[in-house]
Amino acid sequence: MAAHKCNIFMLAFVLCGLTYVFVRADIEYTNHVKDAESGAVDIAPKTNIGASLQSTKTEDQTQTAEEERQWEAETNPADAPSDNKADHVHDTMQNLDSRPAPYAKDQTQEAAEEERQWEATEVKEADHGPDTMQTPDVPPPTPAKDQFQEELVIRPLHSGDIYASFQFRTMWDTDFLRGSKVSHYRLFPKSLGQVISKFSVRELHISFTQGYWRTMQWGQPFLPSPPGAELWVWFQDTVTDVDGAWKELTNVLSGIFCASLNFIDSTNTVQPSASFKPLGLGNVTDQRFLRYAVLPREIVCTENLTPWKKLLPCGSKAGLAVLMKSEKLFHSSFHSQALHFRPVCQDWKCKSTVWELRQTLNVVFDLHTSGQGKREWSLFKMFSRTLTEACPLASSSKVYVDVTDNPQGELFELSPTTPLLSQAVVLGDRRTYSVYDLTNQATFGQTRSLNMLLRWRAAESGDMLRPLLHGERYVAGYGLQTGEIHTLMYNNHPYRAFPVLLLETVPWYLRLYIHTLTVTSKGRDNKPSYIHYQPSKDRLRPHLLEMLVQLPPNSVTEVTVQFERALLKWTEYTPDPNHGFYVGSSVISALVPSVVAMDTNSTRECPLFSSFFPCKEESSYFMRVYTEPLLVNLPTPDFSMPYNVICLTCTVVAVGYGSLYNLLTRTFQVEEPSPGLAKRLANIIRRLRGVPLL
Questions:
Q1: Which residues are paired to 353 by β-bridges?
Q2: How many CA atoms lie within 13 A of 664 on its CB side?
Q3: Name one Pfam family in it (predicted).
Q4: Digit-coded pLDDT (tens) for 101-134
Q5: How far is Cα 568 from Cα 565, in angstroms, rounded to an integer?
Q6: Angstrom distance (rounded) from CA 393 to CA 147
Q7: What is the C-alpha separation between 25 and 22, in angstroms, rounded?
Q8: For the segment 661-687, what is each residue's pLDDT rounded down to a tens digit?
């Protein structure tokens, strides 16, 4: 018993000793972290952490001063020339960022000492030339091979709604396609990089859209997209089996974005001959490596937004992505998220290329569906969140607010105000934007939060300039046998005609009568200058129709074609066949004249040499317009008939076969009739008297 108690005391003593050691180490580590956070950095390794703080500061300041003098002696030779001083100062200051700073008594004194140190360094380094950087001890800084930028553009619409467009761009200088395996990913998403490398993709464009963009009410979007899901890909010319790579790629992307892209097959895939040229660098014109498909019935939900946000370097934890709250984004009139991958120039000289990954998200918040009833918007009302910081990995993080229609502040009031203004020609129109730089801490103010507020002052927003190019589409006819597709293209330019390229993709179960194709403008026939038609094959491929049509100024061009509805097999109908079958949107591509060059006012005072030809900078720009998708009813059998047949058959079997079965299996027995009441009473009396029964 005594030995047992001794063991218990020894164990308790050991535990107390270990606890004291861990607590002491934790206290020392905490003090060390606090000193590091206050600006104290230990250059030499310390053996006694619990020494006095004052002696440590003195030793470190002395050692830091000695290292500074030694570093200046190594990097500043006496016989260095004085050419190219500014470049050397810039490079040297970048190298100084990695050096440790000395201890300071407080923040004010530390800032003052640091400012004097920078000033002294600039003066000293300005006397030396480029030979200083040739020393082997201080190599020149290597430029980053990848960078990330984020932007948010807010545009008040004339209808009172708010259009918000997120832009995230990741640039990476690497080689995906020359056999070199890329194993290190910093900003570029690894899941997407492996897919691009495996399937030799040169350009990838994918979008998921819920709703239809109302061009006549909202104007032109920055990046248009059709309702549903759209995917078009340019493969490298080294791909031998394009169809096989396309099929595998759609299945992989279906898993990445949690979408129904696996339903893309040969029945809804086309190979355009003139549309969807590469948007990046490269003169690849062989259409054999292009595939285009659209799923107009695809429903966009939170499960598609979540993997899209995970591709961002900061995810949804910091930067502009914190505003992407699902319940707010999908409670809107229009929502579209897209991803574009292409090769672009690395610099303005374009001597080398880099890969650009651009993620965009466009959303339109309706004034009436929000339930507020006030013409007042803010970041918190739109997204239920505010901005507190930029993405730490972003080299640029800005918010743009379109104030073109509000030069004097008579239309709406924007707060907080910013002195930064930017002008740019967007979609052929010169626009003015108020810029909020999130990398500047002064943008957030004392509250450390940015919540921009737009308050309308005028009841009406004025008349909106009609878009120069607009498209519509509808189905005409009656019955379930034949019909007619009408496509309308509007040219609202007052005096300029321009050609457009129309792409029509029609499923195989709508059998087009191509001899009924008519194109009319202002009541006259408008003969297309180019027509490419690929007929469909039942259950193999759809119809493909491409036309190059000249649109007269201030006109409406109508394209009509008749079709016949096919009768599908009963296994080819959707679970809700009476809802109808969707037909993808028509695609209109054109070089549209710029609004900047559409100045018809010849009475305004201007130099004569600049007013002879009505042409200015940015005379035309490329635009792609999508029409509405079609909903077509097909001859649908009565799918309740099998139920009726089953009920009728069961009734016949129960009545007919049941009666016959009873007749064949039932046995018959002769039963004597029961005696009457008088006879039964007489027998009772006879039984009592002991007389035989009757």
A1: 345
A2: 6
A3: Gpi16
A4: 333 334 344 444 444 333 333 333 333 333 333 3
A5: 9
A6: 8
A7: 5
A8: 888 888 877 777 777 788 888 888 888
